[in-house]
C-alpha cells in the first residue's frame, strides 16, 4: 500500500479470495476511521476478476462514500477493463490506466468540491 498525502493506494494481489475480501473490509474501515477518505485500488496485479474482487470494490466504495470519500480504480489490462465495463463497474468507479492519472483525477475533483 502506498500513501500520497491525502490518498491511499491499495493493490489487490493474487490469490484474491474470501480472506482477502475480509482484509479489504477491515482495512477500509480503519482508513476512514482515521480520516483517509480518498482511495485508489490498483487491479493490475490480478490475473482475473472474481466475485470476491467485485464485492471488495463495492465494500471499499460504500465505506469511503459513507464519509464523503471516493474510490478510483487503476487497471491497464484490456481484459479486466472489458469485465469492468460489462459489469457496469466502470460507470460507478473512475477507471484509470495509471496510479498517477488516478491521483490527478482525485485531486482535481477535491479542488472542485472545495
Please describe what this structure looks like.
With 114 residues, the chain is of the alpha/beta class. It has one domain: STAS domain (Transcription Regulator spoIIAA, 2-Layer Sandwich). 53% of the residues lie in helices and 18% in strands. It has helices spanning 18-33, 51-65, 78-87, 89-92, 99-113; strands at residues 2-4, 7-11, 38-42, 70-74, 94-96. The chain has a 5-stranded mixed β-sheet. Helix 1 runs parallel beside helix 2. The protein is globular and about 35 Å long. The chain starts with a strand and ends with a helix. The model has no long low-confidence stretch (mean pLDDT 92).
Outline of this structure?
The chain has helices at residues 18-33, 51-65, 78-87, 89-92, 99-113, and strands at residues 2-4, 7-11, 38-42, 70-74, 94-96.
> How would you spell out the order of helices and strands?
EEHEHEHHEH
- Radius of gyration equals 13 Å
The proportion of residues forming helix, as a percent range, comes to 40-55%
Question: What is the averaged pLDDT score?
Answer: 92
Give the CATH class.
Alpha Beta
DSSP summary: helix tally: 5
Number of DSSP strand runs: 5
Main-sheet strand order equals 1-2-3-4-5
**CATH superfamily heading:** STAS domain
Sheet with the most strands, sense and barrel status: 5 strands, mixed
Counting helices, strands and paired strands, the structural category is alpha/beta
How is the quaternary structure best described?
Answer: single chain
Which stretches are low in confidence, meaning pLDDT under 50 for 5 or more residues running? none
**So what's the overall shape?**
globular
* End-to-end Cα distance: 27 Å
**CATH architecture classification name:** 2-Layer Sandwich
